[in-house]
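Hey L., structure's done. Input below.
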Amino acid sequence: MEVDRPFDYLERFPGGTIITTSVDRVLEWGRESSLWYFAFGLACCAIEMLMAAGAARYDLDRFGMMPRATPRQSDLMIVAGTVSKKMAPCVKRLYEQMAEPRYVISTGSCANAGGPFADSYAVVKGVDKIIPVDVYVPGCPPRPEAIIYAASKLKEKMRAEIVR
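Output:
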């Protein structure tokens, strides 16, 4: 994963260093480097997301991603697992409680398109029918590497946005 530095110009001198940049660039770098995610685990994909990707081997914390227990403190929602029609209003309500700018990563076949339960009357055929999704992670269940890759793609998207 490429690390984008928040400065435009850096010159080192024997007595110190001069850095020139703008406040906007530093704020954008800080926003992208500290994603606080709301883990919305609904089924087996949550094991990969919460336990495997957040554990010591992969450690989402080293990428600046910290899990939060409430949507009001989060700027990223990771939806993992089967979204039932009964749970859909809760997903939407929690998404609406998140502060702007807010992002969504959909992980696993069930969250993306309904998975093997797509023919069921009680399953939503993808979380994008309820809330807008920024990055999709395929797999059943997705590997932790795929979740980390999705986070890097989301950071690229954030980098491309213009914040005013």
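The two ends are 26 Å apart (CA to CA). The chain has a mean pLDDT of 83.

-- N.
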